[in-house]
Structure formats: structure tokens, C-alpha cells
Write a structure and sequence with these properties.
By secondary structure, this protein is of the alpha/beta class. The protein has 2 domains: 1-21 and 251-272; 24-250. The protein has helices at 3-19, 34-37, 44-58, 65-68, 90-96, 113-117, 139-147, 149-157, 203-208, 253-271; strands at 22-23, 26-30, 73-77, 105-108, 124-129, 161-164, 189-195, 200-201, 219-224, 231-235, 241-246, 249-250. The strands form 3 sheets. The chain has an 8-stranded mixed beta sheet. α1 (3-19) runs antiparallel to α10. It is globular, with a radius of gyration of 20 Å.
């Protein structure tokens, strides 16, 4: 095989990587805890608006084929334990944001979560994960989500959506991590409890329908030190990433394997 053929093989592999790419689903992650503040706090309407924007984003039938096909509910992940001090039932904030249990979503804790995850794409077009402060996500639920990361990745890579709120281990220390480890992206969260003053939305966040007034007036509990390939939705007064969201494309594993073979062949040819 001559050099021209090897170059053609590499180009064909790259072309296949883009042609065969599957649309990853919609991801929205935040260091805010609007599940708490949509029913308790200084800015109820702002927290409600964050929930509405995030859930609309991940459940948009234009991008989510499962919702378009009739899986119009989202799976809400939260413990059913009595909320410790400083926490509240996060589901109340979801309801306060305009969503009805049994109609728009079902709540599942560690006792039913595994079975519910088996219904992704059939019953559920999206996943919404409560905060661990001041919602009531515990390590029992987080551990299951992390253990089922492969299931969740397949769901997202096929067009499903996920919205996850603050994970910090603060408050009553309901989680120990790894936090956001169930996502098919690599975004690192650092714990930081702060009052929301001087926060601002980016142009991308404004395009989603958020305003500066929505992201101020309550509290937040983590920030992200990298974007994981997503877009920055809002930042705190120090410019730290508070919320991330995005849709992108990833090559299928078979396509990556074919591309790798092409690269290996090229390397061998160059060595000769």
C-alpha cells in the first residue's frame, strides 16, 4: 500500500467518525440547588426558572428522540428519608416549578432506582437528580447512579437528557462521591457554599432564557473547574463556572476502532 492509499484511509476514517457520530443528549448541570430554593429561599421565582429552563432543555423533543416518541416523563432521583436540618424535600421545588408527580415525573429513591433506570427511553425521556444540599440526594442514590454510568451514558448518547443539581457533600453530608460521576463527560466539581450575589448569566445562558435575577438571591454549593466540553451557563462573582449545559456529538465505539486501525496502519508505514 502506498502513501496515497494510507492518507486516503486516514481521511476516510476521520470522515466516518463525523458521519457515524450519534447526537449526544442534552446535559444541564449546576452548582445551584433550585430544588430547595424553588419552595424555600429568598428568590423563589429565580430558582423555579432555573428548574424550568433546565428541564425544558433536556426534554426538548426537537433534540430528544425519546420524548418525541412518547417518553414524556422524567425520572426524579431523590431519597425519601426525612430531610435533615438545612435540607428539604427537593421534589417540592420541582412541583413548585410547575411539574406534577405522576404526570410529568416519577420520584425514585435507592429502593426503586435500579428498576427505574431500566425504563430509560421507554417511560422516561430524561433524568433529574436532586441536590445533596439542600435537597435529599444521598450516597445510596448517588452510588447507584455511578454504578449505572454505562446505562446512563448509552441513554445520553442516544439522545436522552439529564439535569443534575448541586453535589457538594455539604449540609448533613449526605454524599461522599464521586460526585457527578454518572455523567458521560468529565466535569470536576469543587465544594463552595456561597450566597448568590454578583452572579451573572453568559450569552449562552441568556439564550436559554435565564437572566441575572434568576441566578442571584439564594445560595449555591459547588462550582466546576472545567467545562467538560459543555457551555458555561452562568458564573459567580469570581468568574467561576456555576452551571454548564450542552449538546454535542461523539463517535460510536466501532467508528473509533476503525479510525484507530487506520492510524496504526499509517504509523507502521511511516516506520518502514
Amino acid at each position: 500500500m502506498n502513501q496515497t492509499h494510507l492518507r486516503l484511509l486516514a481521511v476516510m476514517g476521520l470522515a466516518a467518525a463525523f458521519t457515524d457520530a450519534s447526537a449526544i443528549g442534552s446535559i444541564f448541570i449546576t452548582g445551584h440547588d433550585p430544588d430547595f430554593h424553588a419552595s424555600l429561599g429568598g428568590n423563589l421565582s429565580g430558582a423555579q426558572r432555573i428548574n424550568q429552563v433546565a428541564i425544558t432543555y433536556i426534554m426538548d423533543p426537537t433534540f430528544n428522540p425519546y420524548v418525541a416518541g412518547g417518553a414524556s416523563k422524567f425520572l426524579f432521583v431523590e431519597s425519601t428519608i426525612a430531610p435533615p436540618g438545612g435540607h428539604t424535600v427537593g421534589m417540592n421545588g420541582i412541583v413548585a416549578s410547575g411539574y406534577t408527580q405522576g404526570v410529568h415525573f416519577d420520584r425514585h429513591d435507592s429502593s426503586t432506582l435500579n428498576a427505574a433506570l431500566n425504563q430509560l427511553g421507554t417511560v422516561y425521556g430524561g433524568i433529574v437528580v436532586a441536590s445533596d444540599f439542600g435537597g435529599v440526594l444521598t450516597q445510596a442514590e448517588l452510588g447507584i447512579l455511578n454504578a449505572r454510568a454505562g446505562t446512563i451514558a448509552s441513554f445520553i448518547n442516544s439522545g436522552g437528557g439529564i439535569y443534575a443539581m448541586a453535589e457538594s457533600g455539604s449540609g448533613a453530608g449526605l454524599t461522599t462521591g464521586p460526585r457527578f460521576g454518572f455523567l458521560p463527560i468529565f466535569a470536576v466539581a469543587n465544594t463552595l457554599n456561597q450566597s448568590e450575589t454578583g452572579f451573572s448569566v453568559t450569552a449562552f445562558g441568556a439564550g436559554l432564557g435565564l437572566t441575572n435575577s434568576d441566578v442571584n438571591g439564594n445560595a449555591s454549593h459547588n462550582y466546576f473547574i472545567n467545562t467538560g466540553g459543555l457551555n458555561v451557563v452562568d458564573v459567580d462573582a469570581g468568574g467561576r463556572y456555576m452551571s454548564l449545559a450542552g449538546r454535542t456529538e461523539v463517535p460510536e465505539p466501532a467508528t473509533l476502532a476503525a479510525l484507530s486501525l487506520g492510524i496504526v496502519a499509517l504509523i507502521r508505514r511511516r516506520r518502514r
